[in-house]
Write a structure and sequence with these properties.
By secondary structure, this protein is mainly alpha-helical. The chain is built from six helices and no strands.
């Protein structure tokens, strides 16, 4: 049975999907965020986690992961640039404001994510684990 989507194309689906979701949510005038009573605002935590997830999905693409530290830095820089462009684009959305702190949270999330992937082999192995199919009896 042939795959409907090639493996190379499949590698890019998650980052593009995540970036599309961020783009769509950034276009709304208000976002509902829960009040979790943290010292750091939920908005900044969300930026850190979402952009870290985008960076993780990019670093897992073989083009980036096979290039070592250069691939890791490239993935992080790509996500940081996307975060900056997203903040700039938000400035054109009524009811939204550009916050430098949001972009810093984006950058921190991207840097932490690619650093964990690059320097922590156990974390990388968990992300890259593939389940083996058992042969039918």
């Amino acid at each position: 049975m042939t795959a409907l989507i090639s493996a190379k194309t499949r590698d890019y689906i998650w980052p593009v999907l995540l970036m599309g979701i961020v783009h769509a949510l950034s276009s709304t005038s208000e976002l509902a965020t829960p009040d979790l009573s943290f010292v750091i605002s939920p908005d900044k935590i969300g930026h850190f986690l979402v952009f870290g997830l985008i960076a993780t999905s990019i670093i897992r693409i073989p083009y980036f992961s096979k290039r070592g530290i250069i691939g890791s830095l490239s993935a992080a820089i790509l996500v940081m640039c996307y975060g900056g462009l997203d903040e700039w684009r938000q400035s054109m959305t009524p009811g939204r404001a550009v916050e430098f702190a949001d972009w810093l949270a984006d950058c921190a999330g991207a840097l932490v994510a690619v650093s964990m992937y690059y320097y922590w082999p156990s974390y990388r192995n968990i992300l890259e684990y593939r389940f083996e199919k058992k042969p039918a009896d």
